[in-house]
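Figure S4 source data
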Amino acid sequence: MKQLSLLIILACTTLIVSAQEATNQTDAKKRKQGPWIEQVESIRGEPGFSWEGVYKNDRKEGIWKKYTINGDLLAEETFKNGTLDGLCKYFYPDGKISAIGMMVATDIEGQKDTIMVIDPVTQEEKLTEVTRKGNSVRQGEWRIYDEEGVMLKETYERGELSNSVMGNRRPANAAPLPHEQGAGKKKRTDY
């Protein structure tokens, strides 16, 4: 009995300590590190939202979740080196999935290149270093659902649409898709 009580106390202490982990921290070089929550205000008629995820050396890393101002999940996107690269899921305001697929990074944020630049006045050529912005494109099969659950399958090859097939509603007795499974998630049965 003492061991069980000790185990429960240890588990509760671990939960409290992990819940108190600091967010929005920077290191000595002023780079964002660890768990982070960002608020994006409304602009030009677009509603505001919040981001939640982890930074590693000032770059988004792993799964980032995007929420409405009301706290409804809008998206789960996977980042590597600050650029979308991996599974992405997008949701309707009612929680139903609107799209799911893979993104692949074509340029990594902060990657350096050297290019030849010609001065327009003197016509002198000189090497100039440029820093790339992160860029990602769709890759592989994407499933896009309308609000009634009708699916469109699109296949991409490094951002270029190569195939598009309109699907039907999934039967109510069909096995759930991998993104529909998981602890604490309500399974969608209205396909």
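Figure S5 source data
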Amino acid sequence: MNAVTYPKGTVKALSRSLRIYHGDKQRHAAMDRLYGAFLGPGDLAFDVGAHVGDRVSSFRRLGARVVALEPQPGAARVIRLIHRRDPLVTLVEAACGDHEGSIVLRINSRNPAVSTASAAFIGAPASVRGPEEQAPSEEQAWDHEIAVPCTTLDRLILRYGLPKLLKIDVEGFEAHVLAGLTKAVPVISFEFTTMRREVAEACLVLLETLGPYRFNVAIGESQVLELGEPASAEAMGDFLRGLPGAASSGDVYAILTA
């Protein structure tokens, strides 16, 4: 991996991420309730795009083993510091996509949560992308590029086993990640944004090729599923297309029914 020297402001940005993602106990409790419906002690979870590891911490509170992927050196260092003494957390400093090798990661050094391997994500309107994505507009600049290792979900499963839950949050690169998966995982969550709904629709199509999934959704960081019963891929696509732009983002949950 290329050596990276981040400009002044990156430490401040990571500190903001820690406050947002690790500093709210009520949010932690809501997250644990949500993931606790899918994950229990001894289960295996993959966190693809772990950032500073709030989901890693939730999965561990539930007693699960975790494989966390995070290609950004600064965020990966945060995860190492938080979980360095936990043998049930494995950190893989790599991106995930549809091929093995390397990939260019576009770094937003002042707002690392929106760093991405997707050029289309960067080119989309800046109406933005998650809780800390309410950062000032001058912080929405991708000012570095680094080459990082890239692996696939199939390769991760071969090495670590089939997870009970797979979480994907990679800023517009979600469909590329799912394109590297050929095995049905019991529960898969992936981030969507209203500025690039076509990515979510591509994810729905890919998941339908893997198995009989039904779908639910949590808006923003609510950690609450919106639908009383999981819906078909077609119905979920209609739901996402009908969301106002102000909904911004959230997570779709794909639940294997057989």
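The two ends are 41 Å apart (CA to CA). The chain has one domain: 10-190.
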